[in-house]
Amino acid sequence: PLIALLPGDGIGPEVVAEARRVLEALDLDLTFESAPVGGAAYEALGHPLPPSTLDLAQRADAVLFGAVGDARYDSLERAFRPEQAILGLRKALGLFANLRPAKLFAGLEDASALKPEVAGAIDLVIIRELNGDVYFGEKGQRKTADGRREGYDIMSYDEDQVRRIAHVGFQTARGRTGKLCSVDKANVLETSQLWRDVVIEVSAEYSDVQLTHMYVDNAAMQLVRNPGQFDTIVTGNLFGDILSDQASMCAGSIGMLPSASLNGTGKGMYEPIHGSAPDIAGQGKANPCATILSAAMLLRHSLNAAAAADRVEAAVTAALVAGSRTPDLGGALSTSAMGDAVVAKL
Amino acid sequence: PLIALLPGDGIGPEVVAEARRVLEALDLDLTFESAPVGGAAYEALGHPLPPSTLDLAQRADAVLFGAVGDARYDSLERAFRPEQAILGLRKALGLFANLRPAKLFAGLEDASALKPEVAGAIDLVIIRELNGDVYFGEKGQRKTADGRREGYDIMSYDEDQVRRIAHVGFQTARGRTGKLCSVDKANVLETSQLWRDVVIEVSAEYSDVQLTHMYVDNAAMQLVRNPGQFDTIVTGNLFGDILSDQASMCAGSIGMLPSASLNGTGKGMYEPIHGSAPDIAGQGKANPCATILSAAMLLRHSLNAAAAADRVEAAVTAALVAGSRTPDLGGALSTSAMGDAVVAKL
Ligand SMILES: CC(C)[C@H](C(=O)O)[C@@H](O)C(=O)O
Ligand SMILES: CC(C)[C@H](C(=O)O)[C@@H](O)C(=O)O
């Protein structure tokens, strides 16, 4: 299988390098090809997602993505900003389902701002729709009748979009504790009302899953008050953006958390949930675990290699239990030394 | 001055009664008139915001609102659901600025799910725009070209709407520590891009205020990681809905937090941030402090009675320090006994 490596900006290259070493150590028949993305690609080729990079992503069986972004590019026209590479890849590859597990790793209780007994109970996954909502609707700036500047963005979902992400939600819940919470704002939004109606329709096919609904403002409260109440959460693109970052932070170290963005046929893009952290780039201070765990998700979801995925996840846990820590976790290991520690436990 | 009391559903009547007692104990020249709202109004008069209630709210100098909502009304057509009363009042009275202070009260450190050192640092106010955004844009259900059901909602802000809430943000920050954080999603939304542009324009008039910008997903993270970094946050209607509830929960007991919704001329609606809590309604278990503190905001913002507002706030603090606690705070006082405790400290 061909793995596309898109390291990107900031600490992206460092953490992707360690994840590649872990994948190589597994003795699977993997080929790797790299391409620039984000600010690095804008510098090299004039576009955050150059055709050659998109082509590689399309040819590959799976994409391992580092991180993109740097304040330097914030003033560029929107189409050239690094984040457009992420949005462009999601759309071009049809990656409609974002899976974001959040759990507290044993031994890292101190890393969370939540009380240990609250944070320790976190073991949830957020399923975020990634191809629709206000992200991809018509948008622009225009003038009102009396000449005022106005910005607008159309939020929408159609029933097919909701149905396919709902199925991912129900199937994920079925493989876990059987509890699915659908988050929306149906008391205000028609998009949410359709969302809720369709999720309820789909639930007829999953009588073994217990479905609940929660408004997004309440969900943001409950993720602080008692995150242990959640197992699987399914929600739209915008609410998922906010809640999945919030949930990650509740679980403590964002240096530990992976993500997968999937289409319906096993193709996926895998990336750590943290950003490009330009302030520590190139210094060997970044925690590679989130990217290594993203590689494990890649094995599981795109390469059908669950046993190898389990091995990688167990190796990360074992390295942590043995006391291996990068600076974000209060330790002193460099990025590559942490990679070594994980490889040694494989 | 005439105060409209809109007790609403669930625990609304109980908590509003205590706030009224506190206001009466101040010996100001206040007149009170009550009217039903929410589910109670739907039962009595067939509409959650009957014309007679709206008329009272319009005649009054300020509105003290309890809470609305009950699962019984969730299946009603949207226009008849209790929440529509809140949205209708905001729109009809032009209440465009929602002020939500969040701070941890001394002695209540245990109530927060955050570690005491994190929660203890919370002392912020969220200024949420309340008359625009995806809440009030065109919305509906329609069919796509090939016949699929679709829900849509138009998100938008024009420059005047952003400008007037930005001024509230800057002025609030100026009266506090001089730090204003504007929260948006300008990397994806054109509405947010206009928001950010206009906030920057307005900042020229407030050189004494330090303005920063943060994406909403990052703000949701930072409110968990280190809420003490924030002083004043200004944001749109939808993001404000989510973040203000999240921030309240970080500060611990939602039974303690007030809110104000203001128009540009001192008229305002004041309400506790908690809901109607039907499960404990009528049992004297509700904490009236959030409503009492809302009455203090009413004194300050609508009646220009800052000294009286200070007195009420000091009385609530003194009652807490003396150990007065309702069940949500681990105590055993009834709603009215807690009201007594506050009145006694006036
Ligand atoms: C960079 C940005 C466009 C992106 C998003 O909002 O989806 C990011 O926040 C994420 O969650 O992957
Ligand atoms: C009840 C609902 C319409 C309302 C809102 O979303 O604004 C509530 O959540 C609030 O924050 O006051």
From TrEMBL, chains A, B:
Cofactor annotation remark: Binds 1 Mg(2+) or Mn(2+) ion per subunit.
Start and end residues of each Isopropylmalate dehydrogenase-like domain: 2-342
Needed co-factor(s): Mg(2+); Mn(2+)
Gene it is expressed from: leuB
Entry protein name: 3-isopropylmalate dehydrogenase
Localization of this protein: Cytoplasm
Quaternary structure and partners: Homodimer.
Example of a GO MF term: 3-isopropylmalate dehydrogenase activity
InterPro entries linked: IsoCit/isopropylmalate_DH_CS, IsoPropMal-DH-like_dom, Isopropylmalate_DH
